[in-house]
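Hello again,

I reread your note about wanting to compare the complex against the isolated chains. To keep things tidy I'm splitting this into two emails, and this first one only covers the full assembly. Below are the input lines as submitted, including protein chains and any nucleic acid or small-molecule components. They are followed by the predicted structure of everything together. The single-chain runs will come separately.
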Amino acid sequence: MRYLLRYLGSLLLVLWGMSVLTFVISRAIPGDPARHAAGPFATGEQVEVVRRDLGLDRPLLEQYVTYLRHLARGDLGRSIVSRRGVREDLGDFFPATVELGLASGLLAVAVAVPLGVVAAVHRGRLADYAATVLALIGACTPVFWFGLVLQVIFYKELGWFPAGGRLPVGAVPPTPVTGLYTVDSLLAGNVPLFATAIAHLVLPTLTLAQLTLGITARMIRSSLVEVLGHDYVRTARAKGVSERHVLLRHALRNALVPVLTILGLQAGQLLGGAVLTETIFSWPGIGSYAVRAVEALDFPAIMGVALLMSFVYVVINVGIDLLYPLIDPRMESRA
Amino acid sequence: MNGWFRRMVIASVAPLAMLGFGAAASAQSNTVVVTMWSEPDSLDPAITTVNAGRSNVKNIYESLVDLEKGSVEPKPALATAWQVSRDGLTYTFTLRKGVRFTDGTPWNADAAKFGLERTMKIQQGPSWVLRPVKTIETADEQTLRITLKEPYAAFLDGLVLIAFPSPAAVKQNEKDGDLGRAWLRDHGVGTGPFKLERWDAGQQLVLVRNDQYWKGWSGPHVSRVVQRFIKEAATQRLMLEKGDLDLISVVSVDDLPALRRNAEVVVQPHPTWWVFSLQMNTQKGPLKDPRIRKAVAYLFDYEGHNKGAMKGMVEPAHGPFPPEMVGKDRIPGVVTYTRDVEKARTLLREAGVPNGGFGLSMHIIAGFDEHKKASEILQANLAEAGIQLRIQEMNGPTWTATNTSLETAPDILPYWAVPAFNNPDAILSLIYHSRSQGKNGRNWMYYQNPRVDELIDQARAVLDPAKRNAMYEDVARLITEDSPVILVNRPLNVTPFRTWLKGYHYNPAYLYMYRFYEMWLEGKPS
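Full-complex prediction:
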């Protein structure tokens, strides 16, 4: 309990720090988003009307205090670009990123764990080299290039998967519950929609997963190699425990501890990679939303994204901290 | 632990097992699917300033007058006829009878007055068109009278941009005196051929035909329009070639040769009204001297930029506005600068800087390919004459902010002059009039020529096209003589579409705006 309270405190501190930081940085850049929003034909008067409308004519401190006051009510302000509430915008764009992030995170782990285990068990042999090369290729391939190649092969040539978007042309999304189309379509009992949502998810998921897959597999391999050399593994083997049991019960479980830490930190990288992936696959996620916001110096949207991302980052890492005791009961006391 | 691990693996593998369901994209043959490079900021006709918004407004709403197919002459739309008083101050419109908004309320003089006044009160979007308006009166149900403060020759051309929402819907959905702005952002109640079906943020905007549309639906028409928001040009091209899209809004110059070879895709370049230029600051630094400005204009490698860097997807510019706006191919006496290093050296000698030896600043917008290419070419060209060009990249709003004050404005900035309608005034008043300097418009050259100002002001009020055009020709000559700007090119527009899409008409006044009512599909596989 005390642990959770401590995290809640630090979460609030991080969010407040983030709000100050993004506010100061975004306002420090000389820029005139009002003129931009008023359009290319606007007269000087029209620009001033837009500026007043956006509240950008007020002193900076007043703008910040107003922002905080609204924030306390859960109001993130109105986006300059989309001209509607940032909270509504995030509500539309964020679930798409979550869906993509979860899918690629799961895929990365699902492939990286066996790959790492095989490499560690057969270290120094062909399987190890093959796994290493595969992992390296994954880690070195530029996301943008990889995405385009997947599009050309699986969309243009083979026609197996769509080129982009979350659903087919003109399709009606499922009633939003979680915002994840795969989950919501299942909740609505709409299997065809679920299948097509999955089909749309495949290429972007592969693209994003390859970013973290290689490094995760390498981490698992080295961590496992180290653990396999420990005394307790030798003891287990000496007791006649089966190799499979030794590997999965004793070694892998311990080897996963550092891997989990890396995974938490990589959540940030996944979000970064999402920007490019979302652009290639017209995936309407927070990455493309953030780019649009930065291009137009859309202050409220930039701050909304920054706050949400820091929130997510903290939550993921708290979640990972809570997972440690599950893997290694000795860590219970620490938590 | 083992169980946890197994569950995780199963969770991640299970969806993959479903892959066989594949890409079940189904397009009905009467649905046209196009891309929009960006998403609308709003569907409110009094607010939107971006092409995606204006394009949808054109399909959901209507104006008093409109442009049909490729024509740039205003034709009757919600008004069937109009008379202009001899002094050019009073416009009397006869409104179309029997037209209803999609909420069932009638279109009449009150609705017209309401729409115009709403636009003027909101003071955003296209409200600048209505700046000359003094009074709006309803003579009877079908007659609207607009009186101007001063005659404005382009008034009718501007009215094409003003569209009318249902007053009843606006009033019903008004919140905190916002004139229905929040609601009209993502709702549409107009008289146009289409209604908004749905708008999924970041994904698509779908229009469906308005069955009650006054022009009717006899003859071939599309009945549903799906606009997908796709930014990446490579993805758009792939989807067009595959037949998943009927028309795309953005194409990379590098993709054109391949698209041209595709017999199922129409690739037709059309001249735009845009003028791409490098504006020079006439009020500070070395470029205050017109001889140095001219020297810079003679140093720039037009051919290298237009044919090399832009791969011929542009035409050389002639004059500060498209000469066809005054009914000409070329305007006599207008200097078209070409690269002439000798002339430039002579001018620099005359200006007392034979070997250059000074520096100039240039601000460009990050991510704008042509800004980058033009700045690099100019940098190399100027270096030959001993002039150092410092290029600084920045985002759009920052670029704009620095331009609006003489202190922070760069010596040179790239600029696309984009006229909003078919009249040179759309460019001249906004960009070359001294009234529009800095914060008051887009004259970021800080260019001042009293004779140019006078002619621009006078021409606005001249209703006789021949007389007016002669004045604009004088303005063009004066500007090119003063040389505040390097007029680089006019971009060509290519809007690739499938051969099965019929009825697409390029209209320079409606660039990136599509009139879906005019389109139909022939032989599109369903």
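For quick reference: The mean pLDDT of chain A is 85.

B.
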